[in-house]
Design a protein that fits this description.
It contains 10 helices and 10 strands. A 6-stranded mixed sheet has the order 3-2-1-4-6-5. It has a 4-stranded antiparallel sheet with strand order 8-7-9-10, with no helix packed on it. Helix 1 packs across helix 2. The chain is globular, with a radius of gyration of 20 Å.
Length: about 325
């Protein structure tokens, strides 16, 4: 599906069409490709964080455009909690196989099995991703990680620069951020440090979906409306899985839902939706007043500083 410019209808306003202008999408694409090329040129062992979610799918698509016709010279890294939705894992593996990519998977369950981590009382494994991530960075000697984080998702992510240098423990210190004037990116780092780089920083959720439409980027089917068994908890529709099932007083029901973001199934919820096409999703996102994380990620509701606290410890 491609975005096209149309002559304005008399009396119509821009507000009638929620899609960002084509020029905006292409400017964001050019900026992201420039950043990806800078990382490939400046770092020795960069990798791309790939969960199979929409932002990482767009990021991989951009990396392919940045390096074409050559193959993408980046390993793909996924921290698998063991609580990921099966549709997303199947999509991840298909994309890796089709592209001939090298996939590195850090499985949280392996860290739990050998005692390096312990299960949390609440059952969620999302906060447990940090240690496997940092251990894998060290083992693979990655010096830069490209991620799909965006500033519109969370206050902490809004604070972070595009090139974010992490210390020897993987931690992020907001006070040590470097200026990025005139789009000059400084990736210098000491031995043991590495950089997290966010080419989609200046994108919004709506921009991402407009780009998916323009480039026909493949996604897991759960991003579109489908019927699913879910139950309501804390304003979110959760689905049963290895992470658990309804508690006393919670009723399992069949509803038409879709996911705005994907992750650990214990803390990532679906939303009621009838949006079965990209155009319908774009209209739905344009009307929303909550980001996807704010609407469907329970781990970000622990406190106002939940994301920032995790980033200081080495989280994505």
């Amino acid at each position: 599906m491609t975005l096209t410019t149309r002559p304005p209808t008399p009396g119509a306003t821009r507000a009638a069409d929620p899609t960002p202008p084509r020029s905006t999408i292409r400017a964001l694409e050019a900026e992201a490709i420039e950043i990806i090329r800078e990382v490939i040129a400046e770092f020795d062992r960069p990798a791309l964080l790939f969960s199979g979610g929409k932002d990482s799918a767009v990021l991989l698509h951009l990396a392919r455009k940045a390096t074409a016709p050559a193959p993408v010279p980046l390993a793909l890294l996924h921290v698998d909690t063991g609580h990921n939705l099966p549709e997303v894992l199947a999509f991840r593996d298909r994309i890796v196989a089709e592209g001939g990519h090298r996939l590195v998977v850090a499985r949280v369950e392996e860290w739990i099995a050998d005692g390096r981590l312990q299960e949390r009382a609440d059952g969620t494994r999302n906060p447990l991703q940090t240690v496997p991530l940092l251990d894998t960075i060290a083992a693979e000697k990655f010096d830069a990680l490209l991620g799909g984080g965006r500033r519109d998702e969370d206050r902490a992510r809004a604070k972070e620069r595009i090139f974010s240098v992490r210390d020897g423990f993987g931690g992020w210190d907001p006070r040590r951020q470097r200026p990025e004037l005139w789009r000059l990116y400084n990736g210098r780092h000491a031995p043991g440090e590495h950089a997290r780089v966010f080419p989609l920083s200046n994108w919004t959720e709506l921009d991402v979906w407009a780009y998916i439409a323009a480039e026909d980027v493949a996604l897991p089917e759960i991003y579109y409306a489908h019927e699913r068994d879910v139950w309501l908890r804390d304003g979110m529709w959760l689905t049963p899985g290895p992470w658990g099932a309804p508690r006393d007083g919670e009723r399992l029901q069949r509803r038409t839902v879709r996911y705005r973001t994907v992750g650990d199934g214990s803390c990532t919820g679906a939303v009621d939706s009838q949006a079965r096409t990209i155009a319908q999703v774009v209209a739905e996102v344009a009307a929303s007043r909550l980001t996807e994380r704010g609407a469907t990620r329970a781990d970000d509701r622990l406190s106002e500083a939940a994301m920032e606290d995790r980033k200081r410890e080495g989280y994505f």
